[in-house]
Design a protein that fits this description.
Blueprint: E1 5-6, E2 12-13, E3 23-30, E4 35-42, E5 48-54, H1 57-62
Antiparallel strand pairs: 1-2, 3-4, 4-5
Length: 69
């Protein structure tokens, strides 16, 4: 598996499996509780990869804390 890289905002991704060009994060949207769906796209060949990434939302909700008002 190719090595992942770190973007300026700290989000990791993988090089494109087709052409090995660095992919770009094009979207983040909520998925099921505790996960975000991140979409990466290769600028060169338009390959798209979607990854479900665990967030700390599940731990936050189970801790008994409440959202600020």
């Amino acid at each position: 598996m190719p090595a992942s890289y770190l973007t300026a905002d700290g989000i990791t991704g993988n090089p494109c499996p087709k052409c090995h060009t660095r992919t770009t994060l094009t979207g983040i949207k909520p998925s099921r509780l505790g996960f975000n769906l991140r979409t990466f796209r290769c600028e060169k060949c338009n390959y798209t990869e979607k990854l479900a990434v665990e967030t700390n939302a599940k731990r936050w909700r189970s801790s008994g804390l409440q959202a600020p008002r």
